[in-house]
Design brief:
Blueprint lengths: L1 E13 L7 E2 L12 E6 L2 E9 L3 E9 L7 E3 L6 E3 L11 E8 L4 E4 L5 H12 L3 E4 L5 H7 L2 E8 L9 H11 L6 E4 L3 E2 L4 H13 L5 E7 L5 E5 L2 E10 L9 H12 L2
């Protein structure tokens, strides 16, 4: 078993009809999408399988790059080298990314946040429709209301944030042993309703007052999902534990089943 995290995001398509410019996609949106195809982007080759149901569409993407390539293979036990049979036109598709869009909640689940642009490009090319993948934005109060536990708060570039208030200053001294750090990170876990909520509100105000230059708050909601507030960006994540095959790649059906199980909790 290995840990695999899915970032929860919004997927919207550009509407060709009157009304709102962007709308949530439906099952019919993907009617013309092939169930198996390849895609190349920035010298990387992708092999893509698509599973469609009435409840979701699931993308399995294996990918790799023909470069770099060594002329030899090395036996890691003996150090003996042999000719590499892979040609310059071949690639080992050892990397993976999974996308699942669920029609019931209109949410997209991505196993690698850095690859969100890949799905936008694939859908654009295959369906001739513009899609946008967006972070889920939350107001500060909305963020606090879903906060069940807080396991990390990080902010930097403090500018008189604690010096103006003796209570905050003493709390900082008790916590860090100093009252004038250039930057620091608090990593702790608190129950909902504790005094940390007031501290978070103060931090939000400090950001609005430009007393800090960055802000990251990591928490857990009541369903046990991880979420991250990064200034104005809200990212919620689901952590799964999935099986890998003998070659070290995730088994796609297991990934899908584990993710869907988390969604129905």
């Amino acid at each position: 078993m290995a840990e695999l995290k899915f970032t929860i995001m919004e997927l919207i398509e550009e509407s060709v009809n009157s009304g709102g410019r962007f709308i949530p996609p439906t099952k019919n949106t993907f009617n013309n999408l092939e169930e198996k195809f390849s895609f190349s982007n920035e010298k990387t080759f992708y092999e893509i399988l698509v599973e469609k149901t009435n409840d979701y569409i699931f993308f399995i993407c294996d990918f790799g790059n023909p470069e770099p390539r060594d002329d030899n293979l090395t036996n890691v036990n003996t150090g003996i080298k042999s000719d590499n049979p892979r040609t310059k036109e071949q690639a080992e598709l050892l990397n993976q990314v999974f996308f699942l869009y669920h029609y019931g909640n209109n949410l997209l689940y991505i196993s690698n946040y850095q690859k969100k642009g890949l799905l936008e490009s694939i859908l654009k090319e295959k369906l001739q429709i513009d899609f946008v993948i967006k972070n889920i934005l939350k107001k500060e109060d909305d963020f606090i209301n879903i906060l069940n536990e807080c396991n990390r708060i990080s902010f930097t570039h403090i500018n008189n944030l604690f010096n103006e208030d003796n209570t905050k200053k003493q709390a900082l001294v008790d916590l860090t042993g100093t009252d004038a750090p250039e930057e620091f990170t608090i990593e702790a876990k608190y129950g909902k309703g504790s005094k940390i909520i007031n501290f978070i509100r103060n931090i939000f105000q400090a950001k609005r007052d430009s007393k800090i230059s960055s802000l990251v708050i990591c928490g857990i909601d009541e369903k046990g999902f991880e979420f991250v507030y990064n200034i104005d960006t809200f990212q919620q994540k689901i952590t799964t534990s999935c099986t890998k095959n003998e070659n070290g790649k995730f088994i796609a059906d297991d990934v899908k089943d584990k993710l869907l199980k988390e969604l129905t909790k």
